[in-house]
Amino acid sequence: MFTEPELVSVVIPIYNVEVYLRRCIESVLAQTHKNIEVMLLDDGSTDGGADICSEYVVKNSRVKYFYHDNMGLAKTRNRGIECACGEYITFLDSDDWFEPDFIRKILSDMKITESEIGLCDIYYANITNQEKHIVKLRFTQTFNFVAEDKSTINKARLFAWGKIYKKALFIDFNIRYPDISYEDICTPLLIACACSVSYTPEPLINYLENRPESLSNTAKNISDVGNGLVWLEKELTSRKLYEKLRPEFKKIALAQFRFVARRFGCLPDEDTKRDLRTLGDKIGELLPELIGLSDKRYYVSDNWPIFRAVLDRCLPFKEQIVNTPAESNSHLPFDEAILMYNLAELIMADL
Description:
Elements lengths: L7 E7 L3 H12 L6 E8 L5 H11 L3 E6 L4 H11 L4 E4 L5 E2 L3 H12 L3 E10 L5 E4 L7 E3 L6 H4 L7 E4 H6 L13 H8 L2 E14 L12 H17 L3 H23 L5 H17 L11 E2 L5 H10 L6 E2 L20 H5 L4
Parallel strand pairs: 1-2, 1-4, 2-3, 6-10, 11-12
Antiparallel strand pairs: 4-9, 5-10, 6-7, 6-9, 8-10
Helix pairs in contact: 7-8, 8-9, 8-10, 9-10
C-alpha cells in the first residue's frame, strides 16, 4: 500500500534579501523529498522581494506567501510555526540554501532513530568569492539520547536553521522563539525537551557568512545576548531542567560571550564597550561562581590582543590576562600545542 511521504513545512523569513531570494527558494523546490510546503513569510520588506514571492506562488502550488508589517525574526518564525501544516518543520534563512537531499536524508535518519530533531553538518560560503568550507558538528554518533548525553544541547549549536523538528515539539511543550534579536537561544530548550536527536554526518545546508546586514553581524544587538541567556535560564528553571543542565548552560553562556567578544571587541565606540561590559556582568549574575575566580590570573594566546583587551574590560577578574604561561600563577598544565585562548575551556576546567 502506498503511503505518501511526510509533509515538511519549510519556513523562510524574508526581510530585504531580494538579491539572494531566488537561490534560496529554488533550493527548496529542488528537494528530492517532494512533499513540502514552502512558506515565504515577508516581514515587511521594502525591496522587490514581494514580487519574487508572488511569482513563485503563481508558478508552484507548494509555495505560500504571508505578508505582515515588520515585527522581527522571532515573531516571524513563530507565525510560521502557527501556520505550518506539516508534521515536520524546518527553518531556512532567506540568504542561505539547501543541498538537494537536505530534507530526505535528515528525515530518513530521524525516522530510523525515532528522533524529534535532526541536524547535519554545514557548508560555510564566503560572501565575497562563494568559496565553501565544511563545518562539522561535534557528534560522534548518529543517535543521541538527550537524557544520557546532556552535552547534546551544545553539540547541536544554537542556530534555528540547519535542523528539522517535529512540529509537535513546539506545540506539546508550548515553545516559541523569544522576541529578541538572538532568538536562536530557543534551540537548547527545544533539544532539552526532546528525547533524542539524530545527526546526519554530511553538509546539507549552505550558510552565507559575513553578510554585513545580518543580525549576527550587528553590534547594537549585543545586549540581547544577555537577555537571551536570562530567558533560557528562566525557561529551563520553570520546566525543572535547569539544575541538571546547569554545566551545559554555563558553556552556552561563555560560548556566547566569546562569540560576541571575538566579533565586536575591536570596535572602538563607547556603546559597544558598555554593552560588552554589561554582558559580562549579566553572565556573572547568572553564574556567580565565576566571580570566585577573580583572584586567579590566566593567559591567552599572544596573537589575540583584541580578545585580551575585551576580556580585560568585561569579565569580573582582577589580573586575569597575562602574556605568557611563566607570568601566570594558574596551576593549569601548559601544552605548547594548545594555547589557552579558549575562555570556555579555561573556565570549565574546574580550577
